[in-house]
Design a protein that fits this description.
- The structure holds 2 protein chains of 2 kinds.
- By secondary structure, chain A is mainly alpha-helical.
- Chain A has 2 domains: 35 residues, no CATH class; 202 residues, Cytochrome c oxidase, subunit III, four-helix bundle (Four Helix Bundle (Hemerythrin (Met), subunit A)).
- Chain A has 8 helices and 2 strands; from the N terminus they run H-H-H-E-E-H-H-H-H-H.
- In chain B, 56% of the residues are buried.
- Classes of the chains: A mainly alpha, B mainly alpha.
- Chains A and B meet through helix 2 and helix 6 of A and helix 5, helix 6 and helix 7 of B.
Chain lengths: 240, 586
């Protein structure tokens, strides 16, 4: 076609350097981000939006914490775990954080093996990630029930400001929901990888679209994001 | 059904994104449709319906204000409920849904040369969640206690306490509805943004996109970043109401008893709400800016003046609108030093906005202006918007705002700038694109009648309100009682406003009639009745079929504003016309 010989970009002169060349690359036709598929771009933008959700939650928590007249409970005391008669501050949460960060490692490996089309290893690694995620949620449930047992409620607690329980349950609950959704999708995608959907181009049940191994990577983005958010929640709730 | 080949003619990249879904039954084609055009019509029809409901609510409010003893069932509680539902419906469920869900869905894929949105399934879910949100919202009319009367801003602590109407069910369902709306919108918004960024056709660079796409795109990005604050605020207030947490609730005494609440911050809610609420103004305004640019250029047969500046102004307004939110809170009791910062940023927004207005005027300058209905509405928009913007200068300054807060002046200001102005654009856009959606023209005579009544009527309604506000008539009062600080003539002015509101409202049904009548009886439009350049007018069939473009997607060679190019054969050159065929200076 003669058409394709025509310049496709308005500002696509290759001699431009620095920021201008970045801008003209972004503004070129068809795709702003040349290396990102639709699904991946969508996940990144969703995560940006979700960052604002968690950001609002955490800022609301900080505001609640500095504006309440009651004293805030002492984190190392409230979150300590008693093992063999000794209270270890932050022991449980350290294990939980370790488990969740480890799951990011197995997820990263799964992405790598998915691009090698190694279905067996990918499935195994995704199941391992899901198991670590489920363990995290399980330990969170244990922590919740421990706190509830000690009298912490959304509307009040024996240790200090009522907002402690409110923000704690709300934000860790919202994060736990994210992890749970991640675990569910890990299981769904792992099943698709195992069954070979991405080899034979099988269409999705709901979307009627062919999937690709890239789905593992996109899910990985979500999973790493949920991990990253946890780091902030950990810092603001347990270390402040 | 003809199978549409998957993907463009030349596949140069390792992606297989253009995997188009083909509906196989009537149900998946027209009801649970994944086609952006059908979803757009579903969104628009639902939003227009809600618009008429909100219109009826405003009638009742005006009747109460103009003739206080006429409608006996409107007491203070009912009046608050009317205000709340009218405001929330118009801002969130009508304007946002129409501009982004309606126009966004219809125009983005067609204008950037895509076959559909990038993820049609999520797009479909977006509409159905929107419908759930609407049903939740409307259901409060039929539940015990009725809808919430907390005001559309839902300020705590009064929003969830007894004494505010609708505190049994109304407020709970309102918050739930907002939460569902945000989730639904996110699914749609991701589609709009990614389609613009990653789904364009060959040759469609960002700087060749019509300004309509730029406006809707920027508004969608803003919505994805602003709605989270509303979501979080709604979740937290729902917990305050249902679980008895005290996020927003300070220690309170009600009926001589201490409530269980304590230690929360009501101002926190206001910050969250307005971090959403102010960008929301521009989520509505930016698509209107974009659409009006295209309407003016097309109907004045002239290229848009300063296209690049227009794009950067849209982006600048979008960015600035995230740092002005507390100008809604000058009287909230926040730190007074904030007022200085937020007044400054607020006034800075006037610069890119003024650039846009000047560029519209300069586009019209020596243009071949056709006074078609879309053009009339566009001109009406510019005047109304400038008008509303100027009163914004009053309210943006702390010292002037404080005495004007909670008066009718505020009501007049925001109705001019984010009520009437965007609605005029919506009307203009419907008259403009209806021929593409249905294949038939709307009746031009009825359209002009509709325009003049709406435009002049809007001024007759809202202009006197500025005056009422200046003499101190407060807003959100269902009657003035024995107030003596303003003259009695204020009441007769109120009555006159009410009469005009009834007339203007009634004439909206002429528009509704026109929409339905023209569906069958309208003049056949052909593919490109306005002789416009942008891609949606170059589809092989009108209305565009599933997949939009037939066998091959168009290739774009030029921007969307080649009107009256010297030496060209026609007075417009479509975006997909190769340079050799067009002649003239390409």
């Amino acid at each position: 076609m003669t058409e394709s010989a025509l310049p496709r970009t308005a500002a696509g002169s290759p001699t431009r350097a620095g920021l201008r060349s970045v801008a003209s690359d972004l503004a070129s036709d068809r795709r702003a981000f040349r290396t990102a598929s639709w699904g991946k771009a969508m996940m990144w933008i969703f995560l940006l939006s979700d960052t604002f959700v968690f950001g609002c939650f955490l800022i609301a928590y900080m505001t609640a914490r500095i504006s309440t007249p009651e004293p805030w409970p002492n984190a190392s005391q409230v979150f300590s775990l008693e093992v063999a008669g000794t209270a270890f501050p932050l022991l449980l949460i350290a294990i939980m954080t370790f488990v969740l960060i480890s799951s990011s490692g197995t997820m990263a490996l799964a992405v790598n093996y998915a691009f090698r089309r190694d279905r067996r290893t990918t499935t195994a690694l995704m199941l391992a990630t899901a198991a670590l995620g489920a363990t995290f949620v399980g330990m969170q449930a244990f922590e919740w029930s421990k706190l509830i047992h000690e009298g912490v409620r959304p509307w009040g607690n024996p240790f200090g400001a009522a907002q402690f329980g409110s923000t704690f349950f709300m934000i860790t609950g919202f994060h736990g929901t994210h992890v749970t959704i991640g675990v569910i999708f890990l299981l769904i995608i792992a099943r698709k990888v195992w069954r070979g959907d991405y080899e034979e181009g099988r269409r999705g049940f709901f979307t009627s679209r062919r999937g690709h191994y890239e789905a593992v990577e996109i899910l990985g983005l979500y999973w790493h994001f949920v991990d990253l958010v946890w780091v902030f929640i950990f810092a603001f709730f347990y270390l402040w | 059904m003809t199978e549409i080949p998957l993907g463009p003619a030349v596949e140069t990249e390792p992606f297989h994104d253009d995997d188009l879904y083909h509906p196989r039954s009537w149900l998946t084609k027209y009801v649970f449709s994944q086609d952006a055009k059908v979803i757009a019509i579903q969104y628009s029809a639902t939003a227009l319906f809600l618009g008429f409901v909100a219109l009826a609510l405003s009638w009742l409010m005006r009747l109460q204000l103009g003739f206080p003893d006429l409608v006996t069932f409107i007491d203070a509680d009912a009046y608050y409920q009317l205000i709340t539902m009218h405001g929330m419906m118009m801002v969130v469920y009508v304007l946002t849904a129409l501009f982004l869900g309606g126009f966004g869905n219809y125009l983005i894929p067609l204008m950037v040369g895509a076959r559909d949105m990038v993820f049609p399934y999520a797009n479909m879910l977006s509409f159905w969640l929107y419908l759930v949100a609407v049903v939740l919202l409307l259901s409060t009319f039929f539940l015990p206690g009725g809808p919430t009367g907390a005001g559309w801003t839902l300020y705590p602590p009064q929003a969830i306490l007894s004494g505010t109407p609708g505190q049994e069910w109304g407020i709970i369902l309102m918050l739930l509805s907002l939460i569902v709306f945000v989730i639904g919108f996110t699914m749609g918004g991701l589609n709009y943004v990614v389609t613009v960024l990653q789904g364009r056709t060959e040759g469609m660079t960002l700087m060749r996109m019509p300004l309509t796409v730029w406006g809707i795109f920027t508004a969608s990005v803003m919505a994805l970043l602003a709605f989270p604050a509303l979501f979080v605020g709604a979740v937290m207030m729902l917990f305050d109401k249902l679980l008895g947490t005290s996020f927003f609730m300070p220690a309170l005494i009600e009926m001589g008893e201490h409530l269980k609440y304590g230690g929360g911050s009501p101002v926190l809610f206001q910050h969250l709400f307005w971090f959403f609420g102010h960008p929301e103004v521009y989520i509505v305004a930016l698509p209107a800016f974009g659409i009006v640019s295209d309407l003016i250029s097309t109907h004045a047969r002239r290229n848009i003046f300063g296209y690049r500046m227009m794009v950067w102004a849209i982006i600048a307004i979008g960015a600035l609108s995230f740092v002005v939110w507390a100008h809604h809170m000058y009287v909230s009791g926040m730190n007074p030093y904030f007022g200085f910062f937020f007044a400054t940023t607020t006034l800075i927004i006037a610069i890119p906005t003024a650039i846009k207005v000047y560029n519209w005027i300069l586009t019209l300058w020596r243009g071949d202006i056709h006074l078609t209905t879309p053009m009339l509405f566009s001109l009406g928009f510019i005047i109304t918007f400038v008008n509303g913007g100027l009163t914004g200068l009053f309210l943006g300054n702390v010292v002037v705002d404080v005495p004007l807060s909670d008066t009718m002046f505020v009501v007049a200001h925001f109705h001019m700038v984010m009520g009437v102005a965007p609605i005029l654009v919506i009307f203009g856009a419907i008259y403009h694109w209806y021929p593409k959606v249905t294949g038939r023209m709307l009746h031009e005579g009825l359209g002009k009648l509709h325009f003049w009544i709406t435009f002049l009527g809007a001024y007759a309604i809202f202009f006197p309100m500025h005056y009422l506000g200046l003499i101190g008539v407060p807003r959100r009062y269902h009657e003035m009682g024995d107030a003596t600080f303003f003259p009695e003539s204020a009441q007769s002015l109120n009555a006159a406003i009410t009469v005009m509101a009834l007339v203007v409202g009634a004439f909206q049904f002429v528009f509704l009639f026109n929409l339905i009548w023209s569906l069958r009886r309208g003049e056949p439009a052909g593919g490109n009745p306005w002789r416009a350049t942008s891609l949606e007018w170059q589809t092989p069939e009108t209305p565009p079929p599933h997949g939009n473009w037939g066998r091959t997607v168009p290739v774009v060679y030029r921007w969307a504003y080649d009107y009256n190019v010297p030496g060209a054969a026609e007075d417009f050159i479509p975006q997909n016309q190769p340079p050799a065929a067009a002649g003239g200076m390409a």
